[in-house]
Amino acid sequence: MIFSKTLTNWYSNNKRILPWRETTNPYYIWLSEIILQQTQVSQGLPYYDAFVAKYPTIFDLADANESEVLKLWQGLGYYSRARNLHTTAKYVADELKGVFPNTYKELLKLKGVGDYTASAIASICFNEAAAVVDGNVYRVLSRYFGIDTPINSSKGAKEFKQLAQELIDKKDPAEFNQAIMEFGAIQCKPKNPYCNICPLNEGCIAFNKNRINDLPVKIKSAKAKKKYFNFLVFISEDQKTILEKREGKGIWQNLYQFPLIEIEKNIDSKNFKKQIESDDLLKNTSFELSLYNKEPIVHKLSHQHLYTNFWIINVERLAVKGISIHKIHEYAVPILIGNFIESFNFD
């Protein structure tokens, strides 16, 4: 088909040189795909390089402690990806003797591997004609074929997957999949795509009907909830602080944070001091309280916005066993906490 041939010709002349494109080793392809989920190439590349350097084989990654993996992942967000990465590494290393499944259906059984990732690995590593559908592919197909079906609907997921499967080059599925993803990333961009020099513009419905900005269609998600986080940054006279490990299935699972008090709205220093005086960490203890940030730091997650304050609490000694402030960089923390640690300069 002309569409597929045009894409692969464009790709051969315009593709970026990236390390995971120099191999068909399923470990490296899987690693790159997990890192690049919900992450741009420019941000993900340094993490890929860091993981390959520290864990050159699936066995090295499987042998690592989860805390080490989370620390190396720090700053990428969506930490469930890192936990699933580690779980799958241990499964492949221990149960499959380091050999990745070689079909789309078997790859789908791995934790953290969905339709897109399974298709990418199956096509690139094992030459299976399994079409990838990610944000870039949705955009290219919806614009070129003028499809109004919302991409974040079950009907849309099925429709675009079927179309991509019909278009894929059965003889060279790896080249086609990488071509259409790359085309969406650097040619048919979300904003200001290069339509006038696009090799597909003659047949592109969105271009010819002036609908570039209308497609793809996406159902608006629910409004993000506001939450008010107050972190207690203890500093004792013997230079210790308190970090707590987050348990449960909520955000930042197994990452570390300062003691947290969540309240219903932002609060001033005077009222906040009254509120925390009865806290177990401060009960019957004299302390000095100061607010580090003048305005709440807004940290936006997919379904919630965190309005965050960091309260510096100077005490003579801690009520619990703490950690040296000089070792605080060794702990895996959310990027919100990490940014504070860097700016506060505990060293």
From TrEMBL:
Boundaries of each HhH-GPD domain copy?
35-186
Alphabetical list of Pfam families matching this protein: HHH (PF00633), HhH-GPD (PF00730), NUDIX_4 (PF14815)
InterPro entries for this protein: A/G_AdeGlyc_MutY, DNA_glycosylase, HhH-GPD_domain, HhH_base_excis_C, HhH_motif, MIG/MutY, MutY_C, NUDIX_hydrolase-like_dom_sf
Q: Which GO terms describe its biological process?
A: base-excision repair; mismatch repair
Report the top EC class in one word: hydrolase
Per its UniProt record, the required cofactor names are: [4Fe-4S] cluster
EC numbers listed for it are: 3.2.2.31
Q: Which reaction does it catalyse?
A: Hydrolyzes free adenine bases from 7,8-dihydro-8-oxoguanine:adenine mismatched double-stranded DNA, leaving an apurinic site
- Coiled-coil regions listed: none
Please provide, alphabetically and separated by semicolons, the GO molecular function terms listed in this UniProt record. Answer: 4 iron, 4 sulfur cluster binding; 8-oxo-7,8-dihydroguanine DNA N-glycosylase activity; adenine/guanine mispair binding; metal ion binding; oxidized purine DNA binding; purine-specific mismatch base pair DNA N-glycosylase activity
> How does the cofactor bind to this protein, according to its record?
Binds 1 [4Fe-4S] cluster.
Question: Which keywords has UniProt assigned to this entry?
Answer: 4Fe-4S, DNA damage, DNA repair, Glycosidase, Hydrolase, Iron, Iron-sulfur, Metal-binding
So where does this one cross the membrane?
Answer: none
Matching PANTHER family: ADENINE DNA GLYCOSYLASE
Q: What does this protein do?
A: Adenine glycosylase active on G-A mispairs. MutY also corrects error-prone DNA synthesis past GO lesions which are due to the oxidatively damaged form of guanine: 7,8-dihydro-8-oxoguanine (8-oxo-dGTP).
Q: Which NCBIfam families match?
A: mutY
Q: Which family, according to the similarity comment?
A: Belongs to the Nth/MutY family.
Q: What is this protein called?
A: Adenine DNA glycosylase
